[in-house]
């Protein structure tokens, strides 16, 4: 019996020793595996973040493309609907086109716009004289400060008139409006600036000695000084339309 007891103890001790040894080996194997798992989890999280960032960047890129497309659409709309057919590829010809735009188109449009939109214009304005040298043209953006407009009407008419500038045939900037008086005789005062974007790239400058004759030849019938396009009263003969005496 004692011998069997000893054998049982030996067996138990052997089994426990194997279990302890196996557990130790398992622990030694699991711990590095767990550490490896942590590293892999970190790499996965980083990759997942990069993937999500990629998706976000793709969305931002698509939004930027849509915005860019909309901006080009607006630009084409303004060029087609708000800009005169003005090009400085040939500078002398373009200069005469600008003269005609200011005197024959833009000036009358500005003068008649308040009445067309339901208010009375009580002020006067004048367009600055355009350049008289083809080399002095602003070839990328022409800014024409028209000056102050003063109009009179009731409140509803004044508000409708201010909003109507969005439909004006040229691209204009209307500065903040100052209101005085009481309806139906409210006076509104504001400044107007016209912007023109010439089409295409400008041509090369020309020798100044030939600028005057080239411009005169480009004007053709109805050019400055011709019977078909007389300069304004008081202006010197041959001066561009809108030029001050």
What are the main properties of this structure?
alpha+beta, Alpha-Beta Plaits, 5-stranded antiparallel β-sheet, 51% helix, disordered N terminus
Word description of this protein:
This protein has 245 residues and is an alpha+beta fold. The protein folds into two domains: 1-81; 85-200 and 211-219, Alpha-Beta Plaits (2-Layer Sandwich). Strands 1, 2, 3, 4 and 5 form a five-stranded antiparallel β-sheet that branches. It has helices spanning 2-81, 91-116, 155-164, 211-219, and strands at residues 120-121, 142-153, 171-174, 178-180, 186-196. It is 51% helix and 13% strand. Helix 2 (91-116) crosses helix 4. The protein has four helices and five strands; from the N terminus they run H-H-E-E-H-E-E-E-H.
The arrangement of helices and strands along the chain is HHEEHEEEH
Average pLDDT metric: 78
The CA-CA distance between the termini, in Å, is 139 Å
Label the CATH architecture of the largest domain: 2-Layer Sandwich
Principal-axes geometry comes out as elongated
Query: Which CATH class of the largest domain?
Result: Alpha Beta
Helix fraction bin: 40-55%
Biggest beta sheet attributes: 5 strands, antiparallel
